[in-house]
Amino acid sequence: MRSAHLRFGLALVLVLAVVVGACGKGGDDEEESGIKGDKLEIGAALSLTGSLAKEGALTKQGYQLCQEKVNERGGVRVGDKKVKLAITYSDDKSEPDTAARLIDNFNDDGVKLILGPYGSPSTEAAAAAVERNGQVMVDSSGADDNIFTKGYKTIFAVLSPATDYVAIIVEAIMKSANPKPKTVAFLSADDGFSQTAAEGGVEAAKKAGLEVVAEESFPEHTTDVSSALTKVRDEKPDLILGSVHVEEGIAIVKQSRELGVTPMGFGETVAPPTPDFREALGDAANGVVGSTQWTAQVKGQDEIFGTATDYAADYKKRFDADAEYHSAEGAAACLALVLAVEEAGSADSEKVRDALSGLDTESFFGPIKFDDTGKNVTKPMSAIQIQSGDVKTIYPEDQAEAKLQWPGTGG
Amino acid sequence: MSQFLQATVYGLLEGGLLALVAVGFSLVWGVMNIVNLAHGAFVITGAYIAWKLNTELGLDPYLGMLVSAAALFLAGYLVQRLLINQVVNAPIWMTLLLTFGLDLLIVQGLQLLFTADFRAIKTSWGTEGLALGDVRVPYGRLAGFGLAVAVTVALVWFMTRTRTGLAIRTTGMDRAAARLMGVNVRHVYALTFGLSAALAGMAGAILGSINTFSPSAAGGFTLQSFVIAVLGGLGNMWGALAGGILLGLVQAWGGQYLSGTLVNAIAFGVLVLVLIVRPAGLVGRPYYEARAEA
Amino acid sequence: MSTAAGRRRRRGAVAPTPAALVAGRSRSWWIGAAAIALGLLILALAPTYLLLESEQRTLASVFMFVVLAQGWNLIGGFAGYPSFGNVVFFGLGGYTTAVLMAKAGAGFWITLPAAAAVGLGFAVLMGIPILRLKGHYFAIATLGVAEGMREVVINTGGLTGGNRGITVPAVGEKATTSYPGNTGFYFYFLVLALIAVATVWAVSRSRFGYALRAISQDEDAAAAAGINTTRAKISAFALSGVLTALAGAIFAFQQVTIYPERLFAVDITVLMVVMAVLGGAGTVLGPVIGAVSLQYLSEWLRDNLPDYHTFVFGAIIVLAVLIVPMGIVNFTRDAWKRKRIAVFEAVRQYRL
Q1: Percentage, residues of chain A above pLDDT 70
Q2: Do residues A143 and C164 make contact, with C-beta atoms less than 8 angstroms apart?
Q3: Is A191 in CB contact (< 8 Å) with chain B?
Q4: For residue range B143-154, what is the model confidence (pLDDT) as tens digits?
Q5: Would you say B87 and C325 are in contact if contact means Cβ atoms under 8 Å apart?
Q6: Cβ A230–B212 below 8 Å, yes or no?
Q7: DSSP letter at A161?
Q8: What value of ipTM does the predicted structure carry?
């Protein structure tokens, strides 16, 4: 029996040696520039499975559309030659630690240019690895302000920060609502991004002279927000603002109906622009105000996607669905990276980093210009309202295709 | 006061829905000593079937649920007969692993088929409700609650008054004896599992008409089923209903008087507490002894 | 029925008989020792000569799962108590380290014994009431504790950062311990994995190990034979808790920012169980083989089947349960002894 144990010991050592040996392909022909043959290689770790699979898939579509448009145009100009854009996708399974591991994998494959994962936790984990490895990442969807307080030098985000998500709704409603709401209740999911967004909203509400009568939270991904609504009901708030994702956003409107909670209007982050929201709620969706990183009415254009309207048309053609903002964020991140490579005339990560920090351009996504922390501060968010089953941009005024319908619970 | 009453009514109705989800899970655990980690996946599958029937043919979810139930009965019967029966006598973590593998398969399969989009089955009357003073009683949830009660009554009748039901219970109490009495245990096990899956499918269809769902919601339903099955006592049909209602009420009240983010903590706290203090469940007796040293 | 159960028990046991212990002491001992030394040498030199950074990181996660699977093996495999909430120790260990480093400015090395102590203390506290439960009741109770603990961490945001996560000071001036990079974590996890394997090996040969096996087979009989079953079970759980908490502590430092959602994920528990069981629960090598093979399998699937990998992984688990329910180690040993590979032998044994 003892010798049997030892046989197993030998087996173990063999297993490990084989494993280590199999791994050790070690340092194949890496080219410093990040360009292999006629391809510019970019890595993207995305949530293709797990709890963020939906948003991950949308982000991927943005990256895909970008790659196709760039290559249709002939590719990326690097110095005096043109190379094809080639994005490699990996699945982080919606797990932050896996996202970080994938970034290391890319690094060892000589891929220094990274497009961000979906969601703040994965983005934050990826950012730490990118910064350590001397890669460069353009973040498409990690909005939590946390990411930008770490002093990272190689992370750039094309999107507006989390604090703007609810604040823009407050602004849009207070600008043109008549009668003006006087009291507001905040309902938030308990994840970091939603909490940060709600804090930004509370601040904006107070500044706008609204009285905050309640701030309630519930677990992320829940489909039952009845407890919070029941608590809020007796306060009779004029406005209910939800800092939420799709499922909680739908639940707020649905359960408000069930419970007879009737404010003048609802405002919610993330959920209202999605088709899921309108399909699940039908008529009940009408009047809900939402915030979005992008709409087809955004001003500005660029040489790859053209205007926002062009982007929307191309997206529709390619994916047979209405363009929404997650994919636009992805496309914009990819655009920023491509423009920076062209500006730098090289795929070297440091040169691209410098080019990104100096980038100042218009695009289908709005202005792209990064501050010292890597945030795209000049880009405003937009507010939309569901009107007769359609998403209409109502704010800022230069993009507005319709006026705010108020009170918003007429539907 | 109206706030308390409203929370109570809502919690009660929610509890009925929870019970509907959990009753099949409890049945399988009680009769076969199998914890089915794929139970939530069955629920979601039922929801997708009813949703598909609703969007394609305009079928009401209360009719669609019958199709869901039939389809899942068949699937459940086959899963038990072909897969789980093969490892029924192995140490219990085998069935845990097997059903966990099934859960991955089904959830991922649904995502490949239907994407990860959030869905809901729309009914014209779902969010309308009865107003009793300040207290609202939404029809959609009331109907779900009614169904939960009806299903429980029907199950109790089935288990105590029909030959098949008696065979299931006998097998659950003593498999060897049941076999000696001429019960075809393989068939009975598969029937039980099929029945459980059918109930899950039914619950899914109804939940789909009340809440939103996507493949990743499956795990949550399985966890809730754990809590309810333990609260109610395994394999006890009335217990599952009582356990569901109890959980619904505890969560509703907890949500009113404590922070709203604590509802999950409350559910698991109750679970652990009940297991420690009274592992047989709050209602009735379990089919087998839970404790080593009690 | 009863004979089938008897057959099963004999096969599941790895216990060397006293006679076997006395015999075969000489040469093979040296061969084994030399082989192990060689293996260690390869593992120690690999980062310098063989492995890319990302491969070191992948291997670090393999080693981490070796620790987790061995931790589960002690309570689930040896004592036969199928913990479905072992991740609670992982999360507690991770949060102990993260909170101490971020809030108290402690160095990483000081937090390790603290994490171990928290793992130990919590295992004992939770073990005393919960280890009285058996079978699925025990599984569900541990699951409930792990899920509940995650909610507690989410709801104590002042201390733990809640769902926003907590960031360990790992770089710059505020760093309390300099960040060791992928090579560093490769060695941290490697050392911990070796400790875990050595611990389980020692347990498997000790009186304590026999006591656990006895409990696993028939707890009443074990008690009747004079084993203090409560103490043995709680000790096994505590040992499991310590190993798992240490893995969590290193993981927290490696990740820099940690989130309750991930640190208390049911998925991690499930992986521990799958690895230990498919490798061979109650054996010393099984969890190692399980962790190595499954971790590589899942990486390979993810790289090669980006859309279908979870689907295929699920199917593989289902098949593996049907083909090697007693684990790869026991399967191989049987095949070796009988000189034939019986693919569906297990099904014949366990089916209805």
Answers
A1: 91
A2: no
A3: no
A4: 999 999 999 999
A5: yes
A6: no
A7: P
A8: 0.91
